[in-house]
Amino acid sequence: MNLNNSVFLVFFAMVIASCQSDPEVNFESQVTEEYRPAYHFTPESGWMNDPNGLTYLNGEYHLFYQHYPDSTVWGPMHWGHAVSTDLVNWEDLPIALYPDSLGYIFSGSAVYDAENSSGLGTAENPPMVAIFTYHNAEEANTSSYTFQNQAIAFSLDKGRTWDKYDKNPVLQNPGIRDFRDPKVSQITNPDGTKSWIMTLAVLDHINFYSSPDLINWSLIGEFGNTIGAHGGVWECPDLLPFKTPSGENKWVLLVSINPGGPQNGSATQYFIGDFEDGQFTPDDTMIRWIDYGPDNYAGVTYSNLPTEQNRTLFIGWMSNWIYANQVPTKVWRSAMTVPRELSLFDIDGTLLLKSAPAKELTDLREKEYGVKDRNSGLPSEAFEITAETKSDFFKISFSNETGDSLFVSKENGLVSIDRRGAGESNFNKDFSAIHSAPMSWEAKDIRIFMDAASIELFVNDGELVMTSIVFPSSPWKNVAVSENLNSLKIYNLKK
Ligand code: FRU
């Protein structure tokens, strides 16, 4: 840190006792368990990775997720299930999909088949349809390459119970080891008819399929084996229509990649271009990342949002495959990111994707601590900081009573989060690190979301985002900010 540049204002906090928990105690009493976040979704117990089947229906945001209920390490995948009416309070529901003789239930999506095109419901009660990958673990241990196939399941009671389609799989593997993570959306063709489009990760590229009924799929295009980042396998794609700031139609293709991200390990790249007749044509060959921190992976967007919401809503998995199986939580493993609203913005003629915190997050604000309240300091483990920056520079440090510190800054065109001294890190040699990202344009304001074991930094309302998990040995107690941050506000966030 360059202490000469800035005078630090120190805010003292109320001490919130660190709640060390016994892994044997029952789940109800785990709300204050060590590292359990207050407003980020975590499974009650067991392992979680990717968000799946993000769908909105009748006032409920559904969040399905890769889940292994019997252990805190990855294993036979199920789809866990939670719902929310406000994107910040989640109700955990019974597991939606269990593995069966065809395999584990890998990542995928869900849609509301309003016109009952699949015939799996009725005109009066159309189905919600989940499209997922069956991963046959036994076959994966042989020399066969056809152990991942796409399948569907349907629900006629708003996602509460599910039946698998009896003629699964609906899309057979042609002989490619990595053939997974179907993301389905509906498009309206020039002649007014509707088609379902499946975007599928196929080893090092994307395949696009089309279907009239979610059951019969035809390959209509391929993209990407000679473009973009290729440091690892391509996973969890998503294809999204947007308007540019000047009102042009553009498509964005999200592609998660592991390893090969900008901070090593897992990350999500995106392409901006045109999509027509199954062909995705990128505007350029630039490599862009949705989040420059180490811990936002496999993120996808909601289907079936009411048009009046006029937004594209994204949730990612807040971890990284480098250490996801080793992070020091005891009863559950990993959390989702806060929900984010994606849109395109323009910097000197270059289009980029912005991820702003979803507007519902402001409902979590309980009490504001302005600069005048500086002696009241950090209110709890769950808080938000907003500030305006002057002169394209800022520096913030968090510290606690047990000697940990976490630094956030923009200096010399680099935005950084330094978690080297931020708490427990010995579970994996690559965890302790400073992560930086270039930002050539001016940082004007920041929002920081802190929870028990994470920090999410949004510069200029998400023009640059960094997400990082951290495991402080006691709650953050003090925050110190550089002098050139104005209008500083600290909000205690509701549990
Ligand atoms: C991404 C991923 C997906 C796969 C799932 C398995 O994190 O590897 O490609 O479907 O996790 O749990």
What does this protein structure show overall?
It is globular and about 60 Å long. It has a 6-stranded antiparallel sheet with strand order 1-33-26-27-28-29, with no helix packed on it. A 6-stranded antiparallel sheet has the order 24-34-25-30-31-32, with no helix packed on it. The two termini are 33 Å apart. Mean pLDDT is 92; it is low at 1-31. 1% of the residues lie in helices and 47% in strands. It has 1 helix and 34 strands. With 495 residues, it is an all-beta fold. A hairpin with a 5-residue loop joins β14 (233-243) and β15. It folds into 2 domains: 3-30 and 366-493, Sandwich (Jelly Rolls), CATH 2.60.120.560; 46-357, Glycosyl hydrolase domain, family 43 (Tachylectin-2, Chain A). Residues 49-50, 66, 77, 106-107, 133, 180-181, 235-236, 298 line the site of beta-D-fructofuranose.
SSE blueprint:
Blueprint: E1 9-11, E2 46-57, E3 60-68, E4 78-84, E5 91-97, E6 104-112, E7 128-135, H1 137-140, E8 148-155, E9 163-164, E10 179-188, E11 194-202, E12 205-211, E13 218-223, E14 233-243, E15 249-258, E16 267-276, E17 279-282, E18 288-289, E19 297-301, E20 312-317, E21 332-333, E22 340-347, E23 350-357, E24 365-370, E25 383-389, E26 394-400, E27 405-411, E28 414-418, E29 434-438, E30 445-451, E31 454-459, E32 464-469, E33 476-481, E34 485-493
Parallel strand pairs: 2-21
Antiparallel strand pairs: 1-33, 2-3, 3-4, 4-5, 6-7, 7-8, 8-9, 10-11, 11-12, 12-13, 14-15, 15-16, 16-17, 16-18, 19-20, 20-22, 22-23, 24-34, 25-30, 25-34, 26-27, 26-33, 27-28, 28-29, 30-31, 31-32
Bound molecules: beta-D-fructofuranose.
Beta-D-fructofuranose binds next to strand 2, strand 6, strand 10 and strand 14.
